[in-house]
Amino acid sequence: MKKNIFVDGQAGTTGLQIISRLEIREDINLIKVNDKDRKNIEVKKSILNDADVVILCLPDTAAKESVSLISNSTVKIIDASTAHRTNPDWVYGLPELNKKQRELIQHSKRVSNPGCYSTGFLLAVAPLVSLGIIPETTPLSVHAVSGYSGGGKKMIEQYQQEYIGSQSNEYACRPYALTMEHKHLPEMKKYSGLQSTPIFSPSVASFEQGMLVSIPLHGSIVNKQNLSKSVSNHKNDSVAEQLFNILSNYYGNEKFIAVHPPTSTQNLQDGFLSPLACNGTNRVDLFVFGDNQRIQIVARLDNLGKGASGAAIQNLNLMIGVEEERGL
Fold first, then answer.
1. CA gap 5, 168 in Å, rounded
2. Is the pTM of this model over 0.85?
3. 278 labelled catalytic
4. What tens digit of pLDDT does each residue of 180-192 get?
């Protein structure tokens, strides 16, 4: 029997990608709303309460409003906004976060989709914090670069019109969130297990899709005793190699995560790591670079794939009881 799915925010960047992935599926019936009725509260309320699953692709305030309109207790909700990501009544929609998260998502009616930067950061760091290899008191730094599609329609238009049209170097790579505030920081702190909020330095570059999230680690912050416990068969390896083995074992059964060793250069292009190689997929590539003293863990993903629409569909599949990779 087909599931009735309503994407609230169908015209947005994430909404359009979700619809394009779902409209070809035979097990899904997409509920569409006419343009003239998009802002009709009564029509919207009726649709929200008739759906099996609602996927919210809206700004935070609008997402909260839509949730308030749902009175049917059987309706399941996936919220792609920031509104509910740290809400204790909602399940955080990152199945690979830990060994219990997938089951929590499967049985939940309220799931909050993770942020794109947060996905890369948490997959790289959370296992190491949970094992005590990175002490929870560690003040971490995060450096990231994303394609301009992460900024939504307005930023996409700006880059396509102003950068592509003029080839201005001004738009090549621009750091932002320099006030040390970013909407992904609360979830990054909460679900990593860290006691302090990391220093987060994101940038937007002149490519459309793709993302790299990098976490530098000095060897001195790594708890060597806990590291040795976790890699008893690799004690003679460098710290970077041991961290690779831990992450590789942790994600060994995950279909959407690949962990690459420090010695591998096959993913580099003349020494450079492309942020684009996961585009169009729901995959996350995790890289461990370095030696005993200086290590860098890098997550690569499609900011609109595993960082948004792909993650929503993965969560949807879990919530409706079909293969997790269906449509991905």
1. 42
2. yes
3. no
4. 989 999 999 999 9
